[in-house]
Fold:
Amino acid sequence: MRHYVGGGFDASGVPFPLVDPVTGRTVGEVPAASRELVDRAVGAAREALRGPWAGWSPAERSRALHRIADGIEGRFEEFVAAECADTGKPRALAATVDIPRAVANFRAYADLLAGRSERSWHTGTPDGRGALNYTVRKPLGVVAVVSPWNLPLLLLTWKVAPALAMGNTVVAKPSELTPSTACLLAEVIAGAELPADVFQLVHGQGADAAGQWLTEHPGVDAVAFTGESRTGSAIMRAAADRLAPVSFELGGKNAGLVFADADLERAVEGTLRSAFTHSGQVCLCTERVYVERPVFEEFAGALAAGAKDLAGYGPMISAAHRDKVLGHLDRAAADGEVLAGGGVPSFGDARDGGFWVEPTVLTGLPEDHPAVREEIFGPVVHLAPFDTEEEALALANAGPYGLAATVWTGDVSRAHRVAPALDVGIAWVNTWNLRDLRTPFGGVKASGIGREGGDHSLDFFSEPMNVCVKL
Ligand code: NAD
Structure:
């Protein structure tokens, strides 16, 4: 486990333990970057802005991103193993989602960049000769990328790729809980023939540590962050004094709406996926489902049966996170009804030392209950009935978050009426987590600031400048 600073790998700093969430055992150590190392990383990234990188054409940068994608593909199994070891997620998930999406992130931005153009205008002037206006796109400068533990490589590369595409230099700080694939990425970038120092990697915790030192650093021109909403607030305060732009993908408490006219089998199967993928530790996961009353009992019975049958799920990321989820379940069991799960599975092997929670279906809680209002980020979903479309929308739109929602209906008019009326950044109809990387991605309210994806990311990571030439 090493930092990558100034073109060299470096294991300096006080080490902290790396814990396997499957068994709870300490399996390694990660060095925590000192403030001096963070300074050096930002300094090297600033210096690199003045080097040959500044002269690279979009086509050269596009080819470099493809080389990084090739490098990840070339070490695919190593990346999959590292991601599974850090997160405890099933291999199938890492091999079909996390690592292929990291490759796709680099390829998608490489291709978008290669095909991107800027606008120009011919302006009338009184002497009839006119003027030409054209837009020049410049990098922001040094970009800090701070990422969470749930989709470590996917979410890191989702920002690193467009930041490099637009000619920025990057200092990345992955989650302290899942640093391994970021180390492999640094090795891949080191071998991808980019100019020196365009990418730096530092490890460490967030508050009063590498994360904070990086985001409050005067040499950092912009911060791209994915994580908890309250961490977003802290980072915004840190960036406020120097008015650095921020792009934030934050927490959620995503709703599902199941109408009686839906294909119920499909809605149940889709909700099992949306609630329990990666044991609910995906920001887009559904944590509350509102079901039209005539089909409530049938839906609840089928979902609970499906949850009880789920096999091959993974653990919570840490003991602290497991305890937070179980705390919610204790209160929910006292105040409502547990239809499935609610406890800790027993394996009779080393996994009993890990951070496991059963897939859990709850019902009967009031809307102001913490388990219905707060982000749990675990394998927990609450079901409640509704009677009208208006009520369903009001329930879905209540609360502080606005990341994603899913609508299950067989009525095409209802689909187009309800989906745009949801206060979220992403609404799915009769599916979940189907992503085209060119589409806008992000949340409203406490779920984020700005949009990523496609041109939205390329716009965030650059400044458009107008040049006006009198002809
Ligand atoms: P977190 O906010 O605790 O940590 C995220 C990163 O921020 C880590 O690298 C951490 O070290 C760093 N950090 C923590 N405090 C910091 C500070 N004061 N200054 C600078 N950096 C700091 O989040 P997490 O627990 O790693 O991730 C789970 C959260 O992320 C959930 O709320 C989830 O909804 C959210 N998330 C959102 C999206 C999205 O796209 N909207 C995607 C994935 C996860």
